[in-house]
Protein 1
Amino acid sequence: MGQAPNATPSTVARAVSKPNPAAPQAGLPVPGLGRVVEPTEMKGSAAIIRSLEELGVKDVFGLPGGAILPTYDPLMASETINHVLVRHEQGAGHAAQGYAMVTGEVGVCIATSGPGATNLVTAIADAHMDSVPMVAITGQVNSAFIGTDAFQEADIVGITMPITKHSFLVTKGEDIPRVLAQAFYLAGTGRPGPVLVDITKDAQEKPTEFSWPPVMDLPGYRPVTKGHAKQVREAAKLLTASLRPVIYAGGGVQKAHASRELMAFAEATGAPVVTTLTARGVFPDSHEQHVGMPGMHGAVSAVAALQQSDLVIALGARFDDRVTGVLASFAPDAKIIHADIDPAEISKNRTADVPIVGSLDEVLPDLTAEFSRRKAEGLAPDLGAWWENLNRLRETYPMGYTPSTDGALTPQHVIQRLGELTGPEAVYVAGVGQHQMWASQFIKYERPHQWLNSAGLGTMGYAVPAAMGAKVGNPDRVVWAIDGDGCFQMTNQELATCVINKIPIKVALINNSSLGMVRQWQTLFYDGRYSNTELNTGADSIRVPDFVKMADAYGCVGLRVEREEDMDAAIQQALEINDRPVIIDFIVSKDAMVWPMVPAGVPNDAIQIARGMTPEWNEED
Amino acid sequence: MARHTLSVLVEDVPGTLTRVAGLFARRAFNIDSLAVGPTEVPGLSRMTVVVDAEGDLLEQVTKQLNKLVNVIKIVELAPESSVQRDHVLIKVKADAATRLQVTQAADFFRARVVDVSPDAVVLEATGSSDKIEALLAVLEPFGVREIVKAGALAIGRGHKSMSERALRPVSA
Ligand SMILES: Cc1ncc(C[n+]2csc(CCOP(=O)(O)OP(=O)(O)O)c2C)c(N)n1
Ligand SMILES: [Mg+2]
């Protein structure tokens, strides 16, 4: 096992960690600090905390209850782990996600059995859809009671099986270090994702022998990181034969931390780049090769770049239906190069001509080198005509909006000013709905991990807790939650967590008094019959709740902006407050709509830049 | 659609069967039959899965299965390079008048008589699915009362073993 040669069991409760002098152990590399702990007697609960310490965990989010209570005792004594007590376990889950997204570390959330565990389910599903590295630790009833419908028993391993990368049920204290090490390894390597570790109360309570590092082997888990050389050559060959290439950058670029490699590749090839909703910022918006976000609410130039392309280079992207529209008519003339660390994504939705399985930080430099070699032989074509076309579309159909006419603020303008006054060093976290799309469209993203949102699952309520987690992970950055009046009411209880733990996030409420995105569909597809989308929080309503009073009740600063001319000053004021959370209630028009839009069920060519208006695809002669 | 036989080497840990079965359900893949049991290597089980899938779908099935952490290796066993066997117990009506005809039919298919009662016999048969189908067709006129079928079993021809090198240490 992982102890030094002459180790004798120590009797002290907390053994001293030493730098690991030995060569790596047999089996897989154990994540964490790389220290050695000699076998030490302790309770399973202490072994959990000790394992987390050895894994290098600094911050965790959770809420205790009966089945996890034993673990909260040694947690209180930990000198290196900061536990943030949330108000709802879903908040712990999203906070762990936000933390993971900005730090690149595995996020950790903790809950008790039964309802505590089921409250984590939404966040686990969210992390699964967006490939966020996260470990969820749940208490479970005594192993002797499993299967008896005991008090607060829920089969959380069973419930979360389809929405986790993997899961473990631990019933013996001796398994704790190995299982936690495996959980962190699985969550953080390959295609990241959530891993659940469910630990019975008796495993936490009984004494066990703890040592570190554990021997860890996962014979069925071998992510490939290096792209196959032959496929890389094939890809480069296609690239040098393409007159209309486009780089379709997805969230995988974010997860592989491969922005620099993407930049080198893009500049070598000269190809246009589109960044998906999960990839905003991995390639700077200000770069001349960036042609926008593709998809249902994407830029005309980005949608066109894909539709008219003869070669799509998909990087860590998954041909999601929100990007492709009707799949059969997506990029009809294009060959596909698809690079992804998850082989199952390749040819899942669209068959790839050249599949490359690997991590983008390794694949992209190989691809750049191979392309450059061929380019040096004079093989690279001129992309002039392609760029002329895309530039025309980009200039003719920039992201824009029409100012509101009902006296309330124009939501797009609010979001645009927020981005301009705050700048790209801040982190922007959105909820789900119209405000999310506007935030993706009207803020300039210049760096990776600048933009967080719930893309795949589309979880209302993500913003406040995820922003809280992001602020804990990046305390020196300004963190804006851009939230809807609907979303905010799902998880705003975490404002208490933020105030009490001094996590000064800022919340921009895009208050259109409605479930705006649903209302937009009712406007467009249900003859304006607004069934159950009025929230009565904003203009011309009874304003329940009063968000400014609510902010005040929580000990936050609450501001309200109803006039265009007060907007900048309020944003500035919020930027100057750093000792507590600030909420700005922007009273915006409920009639504003998200454009462009590809209506569901039609090819992307039918994108509308405003109601009933499609772009001119060809230059008029 | 075409039937394909996948042999799946898995870690023998709790939940593996649930994960595999759940995956098939969730991804809307059709399972024709599934057989699970221990192998020559302690700690490893082998599942023989017959799926109704073709081309891209079959590729998705194997890729998704491979993503399961407890799945170690998957091979597709082609009919020409493997032995595939169905196993069935059949209860057929048979009294003094018909018993001999029934057992003769069974003999013809090398099915064994494993139980005899005054008005029925239980036959056990193994073989290719075609052979079992043919046997059932022959027995049908006598009155088939019950059929219990195990999932198909399959193994590659030749000396190679699927578990060989399956546990080679990870180099990455
Ligand atoms: C938990 C959850 N429930 C329902 C939905 C469906 N849905 C998508 S957007 C939306 C409206 C969100 O309203 P709000 O937060 O006010 O944002 P707006 O669209 O008005 O900007 C709803 C109900 C969802 N995505 N998530
Ligand atoms: Mg709203």
Note: Chain A has three domains: 21-212, 229-396, 411-587.
Protein 2
Amino acid sequence: MFDDRYTLAYKRYPYKKSADQDAAAPVRHPVVVMGGGPIGVATALDLGRQGIPTLVLDDHEGVGMGSRAICFAKRCLEIAGRYGCGKPMVDKGVVWNLGKVFHKDDQVFEFNLLPEEGHEYPAFINMQQPYYESFQLDRFEELQKDGAPIEIRGKNRVDSVEVHDDHVTLQIMTPDGPYTLEADWLIGCDGASSPLRTMLDLDFTGKVFQDSFLIADIKMKNDDFPTERWFWFEPTHGSGASTLLHKQPDDVWRVDFQIGWDVDRKEEMKEENIRRRLDAFLGEAVEYDMVWSSIYTFQCKRMDNFRHGRVFFAGDAAHQVSPFGARGANSGMQDVDNLGWKLGMVMRGEAPESLLDTYNMERIHGADENILNSTRSTDFITPKSEMSRILRDAVLDLSEKHEFARPLVNSGRLSVPCTYDGSPLNSADALDGPARSRPGSVCPDVPMGDGYLLSELGDTFTLLTIDADAPDEIEESGVKVTRLALSTKDDKTGALKERYLGDTESAVYLIRPDQHVAARRPNFDDNLIRAAIRRAIGKE
Amino acid sequence: MTDLVLTPNIESADDFYAELLAAHEGLSKDESDAFNARLVLVLANHVGDRDVLSDALKAASGKG
Ligand SMILES: Cc1cc2nc3c(=O)[nH]c(=O)nc-3n(C[C@H](O)[C@H](O)[C@H](O)COP(=O)(O)OP(=O)(O)OC[C@H]3O[C@@H](n4cnc5c(N)ncnc54)[C@H](O)[C@@H]3O)c2cc1C
């Protein structure tokens, strides 16, 4: 009656009967999150830190075994950092800087990533998804101990929902039988095949790519294997259109074989066949143990709308992309970052309900950007026509000798945060400053004393002043905005000037709780800043 | 910014044309296709300017 659909890596929230199950009438919760994957749990962290009672319902009792995501980009780590669990992730994760690109069997070039200095978090880390989820759950338990009103219920499967004007009714199945709950707000974080989407009969449109990938996580017995990323276009070791190798913690390596559409999955998944591919690829001398393997196909799809009245969708339930560029969990975390403060303000009565529609607008923009980028990578890796193959091969040929062609080689573009250009929450850019911190962008990090700027921003609205005067606190429409005063005199590395001032002398930035810039100007102007605050909370 | 040049701009045009044909001599159809693709990329990089490149694509497709 209640079978697991997948094997657990860690049992974290065993089923326990809740008093709600015996209640005479359905108990009402302010927020229910459907799904306890990385995105559902992050949602509870965001809302719980604001003191909003949040109940997560998951149909399993912990973290799934399959590693799936291994590449977590900087923005994702910064968001986890704001929730208080970014550091252990960075300590556990591995970073590579040297990448090698091969075509057929020859190396065409290698590159060093040389990430920009002066950020608390690295450009990305590689780490098995179960670790990522565990660190979030550690933080979840820590917040609970500190009194945050959050709860997660294992083996609580949502079987049906009924959406009303001002609440949602959920039918939940447990090992003790069914029960009913009500929620003021429901957030669907129930993954790519989202049962919630089906229950509400909502569209999920886009493109299914006719290709499959065999992934194998292997533990190397030789400890001298280099920490590099290797990408093969059309390897001649008979492994299909592409092969990718990169490192994870615990001496585990991820190998991705792109093996085509018409494959016999059962046959391919046999250990002897996986080993045959691996041996042809790594050479006989390399010894390894198999840790985990799986075959998957992917699609680039999104819902038409991420908000349906009292119901929101976030993460894979709302959008799915190809794995090139690691945009799945990374973009899901940006959904949470975006929704959390908006829902909090609306629930506290500080902002009109229409603010919630901007979640839809801004994150659709993000999803489209991700789909575009991952589709382009896919088209480069698996050319769709004769001429696109000829051009792709020309790029690879030229890149061996000529540096100019290397930026055209696309084996996945690393996920970078979306800039909400054109968002109705932005005020017109009034500063002749750097483009990277224009309204809509995520604040770039900057070293500050012993720490970093981003850890001083977020959760509430901030007025960041650089060599500019302003009141220490402003209250507008019930929203408190605190000032963070910085000066280029303390800017030892010059990063503050480079990232926030450019050629201008001073600046005032209005920064949202999700660390995105809402407005910027050269100096403080009471009327204009107040208008920008009203605009940023959907009141103008 | 410079505009896409669509007036005669190659000195000794006949020589250039002969050199282009000579480069393809002895190549199979596949090799020639690959050669052309590399040439387009080399020239495109030399031009660099995104607007000029878009105009060139339009001109080549007959729509510019
Ligand atoms: C091979 C592979 C490689 C990937 N690599 C990367 C990468 O490098 N970087 C990256 O960012 N992303 C990557 N991804 C994507 C990433 O794994 C997903 O984007 C991420 O797991 C999405 O999280 P989620 O919480 O939205 O959904 P999920 O992780 O799918 O979680 C959904 C949860 O909802 C639960 N649930 C489902 N139905 C119900 C129900 N009826 N009631 C209650 N609970 C329910 C499920 O049990 C599950 O716990 C990869 C994916 C794959 C397959």
Note: The interface with chain B takes residues 387, 390-391, 393-395, 397-398, 402, 404-405, 408 of chain A (CB under 8 Å).
